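Lecture notes, unit on protein representations.

Consider one protein chain, 570 amino acids long.
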Amino acid sequence: MTLPTDTLFELDEDVPKKSAKKAAKKTSRRKDTSAGAARDISVAEFFEKNRHMLGFDSPTKAILMAVKEAVDNALDACEEAGILPELRVELTQTGERVFRVAVEDNGPGIPDTQIGKIFGKLLYGSKFHKLSQSRGQQGIGISAAGMYGKLTTGKPVRILSKTRRGKAVEAILSIDTLRNKPEEHSREVVAWEGKKHGTRVEIEMEALYKKGQRSVDMYLKQTAIANPHLTLTYVDPTGAQVVYERASREKPPQTAEIKPHPHGVELGRLISMLKETSCRSLSGFLQEEFCRVGPTVAKKIVAAAGKGLSLKSYPTRIAREEAASLHKAIAATRISSPPTDCIAPIGAELLLKGLKKELEADFYVTATRPPAVYRGNPFQIEVGIAYGKPGGVGLEVTETGRIRKKAKVDATQDLVAAADEPARLLRFANRVPLLYQQAGCAITKSVTQTNWRSYGLSQPGGGLPVAPMAIMVHIASVWVPFTSESKEALASYPEIIKEIKLGLQECGRKLGTHIRKGKRLKREYDKREYIETYIPHIGIALQEILDLTAKERDETVATLEDVLHRSRKF
């Protein structure tokens, strides 16, 4: 059967039209499906998939991070309650690559209503908005350790806590990563004998235990240095126990919370503060929401801002352009530095005790810099140096003024480098050791940029000085500028680098004096050894020339030796 030509034409036209409609419907369905698949991502789910950002990127590092977060929380809790901390850290191997991390403290304990949120919810804490020195900041660490444990072993976290007036509560919980909420498996009141108050947390996780410069052992040793008021008991996986006794009963001073400093607030934050404030005037807003702003300073800021602003302007009605003018006026106005009672440095004397307690060396020196400011945040730098090994070659001056070799001490030096190695660099932030990412840290940059040759040390270009030495640098601040969520390195703010260098130079000058004195002693000792070698021969020669008796010869030699020693007094 033959169809008309026009019918064929119509059929040919219909075919592409129908195909196009079907394709359009498929594309529309794909778009709808894609849009329907979008959903909120909880912060716990994000960090579960990106746990490397929190430092849990390898089994070796994971066990260190878990101990670190638990110890930091315990120390913060003890210090806030005014309690001299006594901690116990236990590592127990329960499988081929599985370890149980247990950290117990004598802190004030945790109310049972808060246990789930503290250990089973990320970004929950009391320190993020609080401008005062503390080890923890973000409310991520200990809950992230529990999340890693559940992810690798499927086992929940066990928490045992007792407050002063309450009973001991045991909670078994894990974190619901899809909702960032605690998932409690059980809770019961238990007996905790011999414990008036405190907290114990146990996390089982996949991990590897190794010794070395970036191990749990080294972290705890450095923690004992930076916290001389701490008594710490550590039981490693082999069952060996190490006790770090406190060197001082002086507790760190209580830090006060301060308000933001005007020079540390960005424009976006200023706009948010203007919208959220309950103040009814711009003058009141500046004085109540910021530190170091009084009536006179507020008047200068508003006058410099212009743009129709006055001291009586209603803060919530200030537009973005007016806020930008206000922000520029704040930056251009001279405002006193923020108060420093919000930070608690270790102190040069206690830092010296901590170094002497854990490091065996010939020479120690410490320095605490005056408080400084970056981005409106107060901070303080402390530096300590331990130089020389007792077991190495060295000289000393006795009480009688004689030079002699030092007695050798058989001691293992983990933190003080060997004479032909680069110096050990110990980095701390708010009394917490930083063991990883040393190359990308502002502290490392400051040490390598310091000219150690002027203090009598050898230093390769752009590197650490080569010497039997340990260099400790500590920053105390209300907000430490870490480069990542894992809190392992400091950002390179010029103000921070400058203060670190000044602290290093202050200690370096005293170290240089000690090194020059040591070299002088070495020269004198070599001369004395040379002369003493030939004094007996001189006595024999004098005996032959002057015809002395053996007794007279010996008396002459003794006289010469005495004159030699008296001429070398210091």
